[in-house]
Amino acid sequence: MPFRDYIPTPAGLKAWLDAMTGDEKFVLVVGCGGMSSIHLAFGHIDQTTWLAVITLTVGAYITGKTIENTAETQSNTKVAVAQTEALAVVNTSPNAGPAADAIAGLNK
Predict the structure, then answer these.
(1) CA 98 to chain centre
(2) Nearest CA-CA partner of 62 in 14, 26, 22
(3) What is the DSSP string of 21-72?
(4) Do the Cβ atoms of 103 and 86 come closer than 8 Å?
(5) Which of 10, 39, 52, 84 could connect to 44 by a Cys-Cys bridge, CB 3.0–4.6 Å?
(6) Which is it for the CA torsion 91, 97, 101, 103, positive or negative?
(7) What integer pLDDT is reported at residue 1 of this predicted model?
C-alpha cells in the first residue's frame, strides 16, 4: 500500500485526539515541544529558536486555558442568576398558587 493511504485526515486526527485525551491543546503543545526538540538535536534550529518555540507554545496554552476557564465561569454565573431570577418571579407572582406560597414560606 502506498504511504499516502496512511496519512490521517484532519477529521480523523480530531477524533483520535478527542478519544485519547479530550484536550487537543495539551497534545499540540507536547507535540510541538517534541518536534522542536528533535529539530534541535539534529541541528536544524539553534537553542534560541528552540527556547522561543517552547516559550510561545506554553504561553499560548496557558492563555487558551485561562480564557476557556473564564468563559466557563461566566456561563455558570449567568445560569445561576437566571435561575435565581426565575425563582423570584415564581415567589412574587400573585397567581402562583399554594405551591409558591409554600416555597415563599420556606424562604422567610
Answers:
(1) 44
(2) 26
(3) TS-HHHHHHHHHHHHHHHHHHTTSS-HHHHHHHHHHHHHHHHHHHHHHHHHH
(4) no
(5) 39
(6) negative
(7) 45
Residue ranges per structural domain of the chain: 3-107
Residue 38: predicted pLDDT: 94
pTM, two decimal places? 0.52
Output b/e per residue, 63-93; b: 16+ Cβ within 10 A: eeeeeeeeeeeeeeeeeeeeeeeeeeeeeee
pLDDT in tens, 25-77: 788 888 999 999 999 999 999 999 999 999 999 998 888 888 878 877 877 77
Rounded to whole angstroms, how far apart are CA atoms 104 and 95?
A: 13
Task: Give the type of residue at 98.
Answer: P
User: If you count them, how many residues does the chain have?
Assistant: 108
